[in-house]
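Hi support team,

I submitted a single chain yesterday and got back a structure, but I'm not sure I'm reading the token output correctly. Could someone confirm the output below corresponds to the sequence I sent? I've pasted both exactly as they appear in my results page.

Thanks,
R.
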Amino acid sequence: MTREQKIIRAKVGLLELAKQLGNVSQACKMMGYSRDSFYRFKELYDQGGELALQEISRQKPVLKNRVAQEIEDAVVALAIEQPALGQVRIANELAKRGLVVSPAGVRCVWLRHDLQTMNKRLKALEAKMAQERLILTEAQLAALEKAKTEKEAHGEFESEHPGYCGAQDTFYVGNMKGVGRIYQQTFIDTYAKVGFAKLYDRKTPITAADLLNDRVLPFFDSHEIKLLRVLTDRGSEYCGNPERHEYELYLAVEDIDHSRTKTKSPQTTDVIDKCFVAGSRLFFSRARVTARRRAGREAQALPRSLHCRTSFAAPVRARLGPRGFQPATKRA
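Hi R., thanks for writing in. Yes, this is the structure output for that exact sequence:
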């Protein structure tokens, strides 16, 4: 029995059950239909019998509003062939070939094939080049070279040897009583993953330069390694006027190139976060233990009281004094 026949049988069964019971509400409750559906079925059955109870209300499925397959294939091929072109220029180039598609349609095709950014299109081009051993055109070579230059300018490169590049970042440790905020200046060699750290009570260009001068460069000099480049974010302690900024002046004196991460795209100093997240947890756990011990010593040093220090009794004692104590003179 097909699904349509089962539906018709259920509707006929509802009508017969209501006739036997003489109660429409009870029959609808037992069969799982509403009273409105019952009267609609009864009207159709009286007019045309069981054939009128066929499922005629089902709409045709709405097909996805997509471009033709040949246009989609052309968009993908052109995106890999010309990765530097945007969606407007892609639509224009296809219009010259007689394939009509809007820039929004090009964007939808890119999203389906994960080609919505130039970097992803370049990766697709490199994968296709590796599989099919293609000979790149001048436009493709220019796009790859431009992307490589931009990545190197913003710190996305492969370290070739120790001292090729070091990543430096500021890590907020916490707040200590009597000291204030504590910051950790962190430096990691991106090739050897050798790290240096030092704590400061402020976040300034002087402290950023002090880490290099006190810990990093002496270590590299002892191993006869030249530090070529430092990668930082665009924080105020690292970036400023080269003529007055202490950190920039120090790098210029030591002949160290300064690379910065791309604006609103932190992507390369993550090596510091990953390497020091475990260390920070260890630091905080030790700091908590130290704080407990210190608090214990301070509590032992305080004079012991016989009175329970509740939230209600404390303000009363602060105003009237301890229980059992009456001042010699009372104010009028």
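A quick pointer for reading it: The chain is about 50% helix and 10% strand. Let us know if anything else looks off.

Best,
Support desk
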